[in-house]
Fold these 2 entries.
Entry 1:
Amino acid sequence: MITFDKVTKVYPDGTRAVDGLSLDLPTGKITVFVGPSGCGKTTSLRMINRMIEPTSGTIGIDGRPTSSLDPVTLRRGIGYVIQSGGLFAHRTVLENIATVPLLLGWGKAKAYGAARELIERMGLDASLTSKYPAQLSGGQQQRVGVARALAADPPVMLMDEPFSAVDPQVREQLQDEFLRLQAELGKTIVFVTHDIDEATKLGDQVAVLRVGGTLAQLAPPADLLADPVDDFVADFIGRDRGYRALAFVAAPALPIQPEATVELGATREQVAAVAAGAPWVLVVEDGAPVGWVAPERLGATVGRDDLHRGGTVARVGGSLRAALDAALSSPSRRGVLADDDGRLVGTVSATDVLTEIERDETGPPS
Amino acid sequence: MNLVWAWLADPAHWQGTGGIPARIAEHLLYSALVLVLAAAVAVPLGLWIGHTGRGRVVVVNVVNGMRSVPTLGLLYVSVLVLAPRLRGDWAFLTPAIIVLFLLAMPPILAGAYAGVAEVDPGVRDAARGMGMSGLEVLWGVEIPCALPLIFSGLRSATLQVIATATVAASVSVGGLGRFLIDGLAARDYGQMAGGALLIGLVALAVDGVFALVQRVAVSPGLRPARPLKTHEAIPAS
């Protein structure tokens, strides 16, 4: 557990970056610091490994005040990932990842062995091992940055906006991989972001900080969305809170309806027969839903260009938010549900999803 | 052109203490001496200023100030001041070395300083945050990343020193400059042009050697961006 006890940082020019911050970051959990610029979230993170020294107050790791440890030793025991990746341009991917093990004197064989293992674990192609950072995509660089932080298997990881510099699609992929990895590794993670959606998606608990460096609210994401403590937090969380909170409610057994489908490449006549007058027909390819077609606007056969791709696909057993979104985004108003392998299970209507939400008498999670 | 060729082709010009090989050796010796001295001072100074961020103003002013010093004028002043106080060859060699040293300093200092100062702050931050000490950051990250600019400073200084070492001859020291000064005195234009040609060739040859050393010393990861060859293509993630 990492403990902040009345931690304050005042810069020489009088700026109060962090003011009397006290909170506990439980072992094996992800704590996200989130807030507008100037709220001291990065300063708070950097005080943990003493990249910045607190003006007053103490930060303890498992009961030991960090101020009692040599900064270099302390930092070698804490993973550190920053927004720009900070990879060493003159070293290969393998050498970058082996940095801390080599600093710790593991010897080359053991250090590179650990690095190779992480390359595999991070889902990086083995061919990247001997590449240099300049030859990697942004997403690959961030993965290498995370692998480098994990190389010496530190119990604590500090991550300062690690996914902010990549495009949204890659960011989502990195977030999902990160959660999968954390489920295996169970590190104590401190994560800084300015993006509340990222905070609620990744955090086991979210600490919302105010400008001036005070703690506004510390809560699990679902509680934060359901019950913001004041106007500042409510404003910061933003709109659609009720809808977004549904992301933390696992969908119960929804009344899933079977859906008539056609294969990609089916003829106009086959589609018309399946549709039987309905305006939209679901198209599948090898059992996986790929989109909807409108029979009356079809050429001779169903091609990829004919597909309406606006509808999202929800996973059975996923969240109520995903199920509702699938229904609302579908042109037929029937939300497509698929299993973990992406194969079609059936469809569900928005009304059925709403009925489930209303049936949950406990109200929004709190 | 025929005059130059005739002068260069004359076997007599390739022998003895005043011959071409001996003059080239002298020229290289002076240049190497000057460059080693200048690098010994300017490289550590530039690295230190770049690493600590202290004394940046000094770099800018010293570099600009030194660049505006007239070489030939300074050489004659140095000779007037120093020659009476020194004996033998050193009486004229020392002023020449001082002048060339001052000429070589600015590019080397600027290269070493800029090389370290321009290391991405994120990279430096990551290095410290992972637990590298100040010296480990300097040796393990800043210097390797600064090498391309350090080399560029050294090469630029080398070209200037080899070209300008010619002036040493004007204060009766050896080197390839002798052919220019003596050729002018004797109105032997073949010798003058031949000497100039040799200086150019020596400069290019030495720069070529530096280029080879740089290729070996600098990490491939720091080479200027170029399109990847097909066999290096990276599978999309």
Note: Chain A has 14 helices and 16 strands.
Entry 2:
Amino acid sequence: MEKKNVPQDFSKLENFTREVCYAVDENGNYVTELSTGWDVKTTALDVAWSDIEARVNEARKQVLEGKASPVLFFMELRLMDIGIVAAYTGFWKWSIKRHMTATGFKKLSEKKLKKYAEAFNVTVDELKTMQVHEN
Amino acid sequence: MKIDFEHVQAAHCENGVTKNLLRFNGVDQITEPLAFGIGSGLFFIYIPLLKINNGPAFAFRTMPGNIFKRTCKSLGIPVVRKKFSSREKAEKFLEERLAEGKPVGCQVGVYYLSYFPKEYRFHFNAHNLVVFGREDDNYLISDPVMETTTSLSKYELERVRFAKGALAPRGQLYYPKSNVSVSREQIQSGIKTGIRRNIRDMLYIPGNFAGVNGIKFTGKKITKWRDKLGEQKAGMYLAQLVRMQEEIGTGGGGFRFIYGAFLQEAHAFIPNDKLLEISTQFTKAGDLWRSAAVQAAGIYKGRLQTQEDFNDMGEFLFQIADLEKQAFTALSKIKWQ
């Protein structure tokens, strides 16, 4: 890549930072250049986020239809998979799968609910009602 | 308590931490490309069975931690590296080092890293930064991918140091044990060792998932993705490939440009003109990776949808595999004096 071709497109890093790119100058020597972003990868990130959004919406729908529990919803919302939920809560994967069903969730003790709430960075009430706060 | 620590931005977090920490400890010659090359950072691997963020796992660089470890070892720099089971002990140890005037490298998770934009915060646990002081409740942070230094509260730092999941940092920190000066000969031998190890990793690693074979393997797989996964999912997989290749930290072109820069800088220590020639091959490889990314974007934007387009995408990777094979083979034929 030549220095003059280092893309300066919009990205979500705006107002946070620019990133260092390595490129060659007119004499063929490597130099660094700051880039604000590249459309190709901004779109790649958008693709990832629209997939996440679809997953979250699908999970919410399943919970409302009684086919799943808020554990599934928050797992998707917090970009986790069962392995990560297991690591944060200390529960076995198979028991998490059970807690993801509406009936399994109802049987959860207050203590276990608290563990989930902590792992998802919400309160127990928010966990039960699928309320979302940012931060 | 603030250590006089020079924050210099880098493309990649581990290179940057390595460079900034080594410079602080007296290794004036070190640069980001040298750290990357001496640490044999260039790699490729595709692990179809491992899923990250519901997509396939790709990497364009070596295992996290290797660059710092190998670079220090090659240059004869003793390193302290510690993991903790207790959060209190982890913080106490950090505090003690800061009180001694030692900046410390920390492995952290990105998900709760408050100074990153939300869109970039995934559960990726092998990010690296340097803590170089504390003011009241805030730790002073030099994150090499950021233009300026930042800070994290005690709670925030603890949370990212004890992020959970794959590659959980477990409070891990590391730093050079003492100040050192490194001779020109040591750098020369580090460069040679780094190149040899990188040749091994890219050309002779067993199996077909990794190295140049891995690139070819991925190309073959991609040509089948449209039928196997459908256009949308195949597009998502390609977007994942592009992100691993180009996102913040790679310096562009899946680290190939940084490697090109390394070979140029290596020439200043080992004046063999072959290094300069081969550097241009890596520039070409990086350019091809970027052309491949443009093709991939055509697919995930929905502009390119036919099987022919997927074949073209695969073809890019076949070409890259050939080019990188030639480049590493040429490196392996260099006669070091």
Note: Chain B has two domains: 13-176, 207-332.
